[in-house]
Amino acid sequence: MAHDYRTALNLYIDGERLTVAGRSVHRVINPATGDTLAELPLATAQDLDRALDTAARGYRLWRARPAHDRSRVLAGASQLLRQRIDQIAAVATMEQGKPLVEAKAEVNMAANLFEFYAAEVHRLYGRVLVRPAGTLSRVMKEPVGPVAAFCPWNFPLGNPARKLGAAIGAGCSIILKPAEEAPGSAIEVLNCLLDAGLPKEVASCVFGVPDQVSRHLLASPIIRKVSFTGSVAVGKHLMKLAADGAKRTTMELGGHGPVLVFDDADVDRALDLLVAHKFRNAGQVCISPTRFHVQEGIYERFVKEFSARAAKLAVGNGLEAQHQMGPMANPRRPDAIEGFVANALKVGARIATGGERGGGTNDNGFFFRPTVLADVPLEARVMNEEPFGPIALMRPFKTFDDAIEQANRLPFGLAAYCFTENGRRALLLGDAIESGMIGINTTVVAGADSPFGGVKDSGHGSEDGPEGLRACMVTKAIHQA
User: Fold this and answer.
1) Which of these is catalytic: 180, 201, 252, 386?
2) pLDDT tens for each residue of 232-275
3) DSSP alpha helices (H): ranges in 312-412?
4) Are residues 340 and 381 both part of a single domain?
5) 252 in active site
6) Which of 154, 172, 249, 294 can bridge 299 by disulfide, Cβ–Cβ 3.0-4.6 Å?
7) Does 470 lie in the same domain as 392?
C-alpha cells in the first residue's frame, strides 16, 4: 500500500496555523530513505510570547469548565485516533522509521490513554476533614496552571498524548513542543483533540531550537508546570531553569534497563519476549532491556539463542510489512552505536551477531543491524551510558546478590526485567531492585492505568494512570469557621 505524507506542518497558536512564511525552517527527513518530507516552521520569540498569552487565557477558560466537558473532548479524541489510525500511523513511520505495526500500536496507546483520562477526570476527589460542629475543613484538588511540555522523537504519538491528556484532563492549558524530527505525528494527535471540541486557547503547539524555546517558556511566570521526556542531561538543565520560578516538574529521563535471567527461568518464553522487546523501535526506547545479566548455568545457551533470533529479524523500511525493525531516527544514532561497539570490542567484548550498519535497500537510510555483544566488561562505555539503539549486552552472574548488585550499579532507575520461576525470588527481586517499573516474567511495564516513571537519575513523578493526571494538579486546604 502506498502512503503519502499529507500532514500540514504548522505552528498552532490561539487557533491559527502559522506557516513557514518569515520563519526559519527545519527539514523533516524520512530516516529510511534520507529524503526530505517537508519543511517545518520554527517559532520566533514573538510566536512564543503569543503562545504564553494564549495559555494564560486558555487556563482561565478551561479550569472553569466542568469535568464533563474535559471528558467529552478526551473521549472524542480517542475515537478519532482510532478512526484515523492508518493515516496517523503512516505519518509516524515516515517521520520516525518504526514499523507500521508498531506505529499503529502507538496510536492505540494514545487512544487508550485519552479514554482512561476521560473517565478518570470524574474521580479527581478531594476530602472533608473531621472538625467540630460549625466548622468545615476541605482538601481540594485544582489544576496547577499552564503547562510547558517537551517531547522526544522516539514515540512521536504516545509522548504528545501523555502530555496533552494529563494537562487537558486536569483542567490546565498547555504549550506543547514536540520533537522537530517527527512533528507531523504530534500535530495529528492535537488535531484529534481540536476536532473533538477542545477550545483553541487551551493547547498550542510550537517548534524551534530546543534550548531557545525552553528558556523562553520557562522564564515566564505564566508557566506553572514543566513536563519533559528525554535525556538526563537535558532534564537536569530544565530542572535548573524551572527552579528559578519554583515551577513543578515531571521528568521522565534516560534508562539503562537491566535484565536478570535466572537459571530456573523459562528460557524459551524469556527469549520470545525479550528479543522482540529489545529491538522494538530499533532499541530507541527509554525502557528498552539492555544489560542482560544471565546466570552462569544457562548463559551460553541464552546468548546463542538470543543472537540467532536477533539475526533473523528483517530490517528495512517500516512501511513494508515484511520488516520487523526499521531505521534509527536520525544520522546521529548509527554513529553513536558504531562508537559503542568499537569501544566494547577494544576492552574485550565479542560480537555474537550484528555490530555493523546495514538493512533496507537505500544506502541513505539510517540503518544498523540488530547487535548482540557478549562478555561485555563493566568498563565498556556502553555498559555505563545509555546506548538508545539496537544493541543487547550480555554478561554472566553467579548469585542472587551478584545480580542485584549489577542491576542497581548505575545511577539509572527507570525499568528493569527479571525472569525466574521461583516465587519467593520474584518477591525479593521486586523489593531489591531500584527502579520505577519492574517486569517479572513479562516485558509489559506500561499501561494507560499504570504510573510510568523512574527513580534516581531516571527522573521523578509519573505519567499515565491516576498519578499522571494528579501530577498536573495542586492541593489546597480550605478551613472555614
Assistant:
1) 252
2) 999 999 999 999 999 999 999 999 999 999 999 999 999 999 99
3) 332-346, 400-407
4) yes
5) yes
6) 294
7) no
